[in-house]
Amino acid sequence: MRFSSYFARSWKAAVAILVFISVAALGSWGCAWYFPPSSYGLAEQNARIVVTDITVIDTQHNTAASNQNLVIQDGRITQITSDVILEIEGELRINGLGKYVMPGLIDMHSHVWGRSDLLAMLAHGVTRTRVMAGNSPQRILKKWVDTGDIVGPHMVLSGAPVNQHSHYASGRHHKFIGSKEEARQLVRQQYQQGYQQVKVYDGLSREVFFAIADEAQKLGMPLAGHPPFGITLNEYLSAKPQSLEHVEMIFQAHLNHDYQQERFDEIVQQLLDSNVPVSPTLIVYDNVAQIAQHGPDYWHSIADDLELNHPAIKAMGEQKVNGIHSAKAQQDWQGKSNIFGDMAKQLNQAGIEILIASDGGTFYTPNGLGTIQEMQRLVEVGIPVKDVLRAATHHPAKALGINDKVGSVSTGFNAELLLLEDDPRENLNTLTNPLGVILDQSYFDRHSLSEMKGLAKSTGSKSKFYFWWIVDNYIY
């Protein structure tokens, strides 16, 4: 009898806790959805922005035009000319001082956990990003970015990774399904929630993968992600994905962890025939390789950079350092990193379009800075700077189907621009400290960008992170 009474009280307490969390979640959603956070007042905003005496870098064609003047009206470039632009009262006029302007960076593989990630990206010149693991904060933040209430890069959101239980890689934030019917239902659910893409993962079976691809196509949702181990590369490519993520996945799933040049040549040809671009994501693996090799010493050497990460992600990464370092004897991490770099170089040489994709927002690769580090790593492995700049601007815009309005400093295009001290074709490191960023009708000067980096390091909340984690994984 006592046991029954105790059980009843415990059951009621558990129900009460669940009800409380559910009500709190609904209340938090409502407040976050209908009441935007502070804008911080970082930008100078103006419907008409004029930039004078600037050299325009065309990253698609690797050309430059000096002594140009740009007119931006209502967030679009309306005029590029060497003629004098008459000043209009109330406009924002920026003297380019003979410096350089190029398209804003597009990072095709990021992870966003909170507002700090958006600030870190924009502070480093990332004006647009494809977010590759959906959660509630992203959907809320995207709304406020799109309405102009807060600053941040424009976002394309993938839903939570779709996976099946298997011995292959998985994460606690994945959505696991067991049948074709569940797969279709999940795709529809993500569509209804406002996600724009579907991310597939390692463990999917052939029949489930094609059910996902079919349902996504019906809804007009592009598909991208990890090519599952249970299908061939040609089967993955036949689904017409927006991209293939990670050269590491080519190594694992299609080279079976054994690099053979003849087999890789076949893979290169398959990719070339498919016109599917590849997101190499070299820097994220190389950072793990450095942790494996040097352990806490390397972690401490990048600790300042990792302040840009969400504090919950940084803490998780720190906890894993010793484990990764102690496991270094199990595989040649740095050797693999070098192989992945050579694979990316060969893909580019073959004419396969590569995409800048940092995998930022992960343990050792912060958003924004990670984008630039990915570009630097690609140059380091032998890819020409001109190709890397194209991979950060034109190629991503093309993959997203918006290269008629994004990815170029051209008349009629969106104002997503970087103002730089040096010609990035000659000094890629100039990207690390832009003179300014123009995004839509907002201008951020160097001081504002520095302030933005500081805010990125101080605005993350562990409690909010875990609260939304519970909401996304156990309530909604």
- Calculate the mean pLDDT score and round it: 92
Low-confidence stretches: none
Shape: globular
CATH architecture of the largest domain: Alpha-Beta Barrel
What integer value in Å does the Rg equal? 23 Å
Name of the level-1 CATH class of the largest domain: Alpha Beta
Strand residue percentage = 15-25%
The named CATH superfamily of the largest domain:
Metal-dependent hydrolases
Q: Give the end-to-end Cα distance, rounded to a whole number of Å.
A: 37 Å
CATH topology of the largest domain: TIM Barrel
| Overall number of structural domains | 2
Main beta-sheet strand count, sense and barrel state: 9 strands, mixed
Number of strands: 18
Structural write-up:
This protein has two domains: 1-35; 103-409 and 421-431 and 446-456, Metal-dependent hydrolases (TIM Barrel, Alpha-Beta Barrel), CATH 3.20.20.140. The model has no long low-confidence stretch (mean pLDDT 92). The strands form four sheets. Strands 1, 2, 3, 4, 5, 6, 16, 17 and 18 form a nine-stranded mixed β-sheet that branches. The chain is globular, with a radius of gyration of 23 Å. It is an alpha/beta fold and 476 residues long. It has 18 helices and 18 strands. α3 (136-146) links the parallel β8 (126-131) and β9 (154-157). The longest helix has 33 residues, at 2-34.
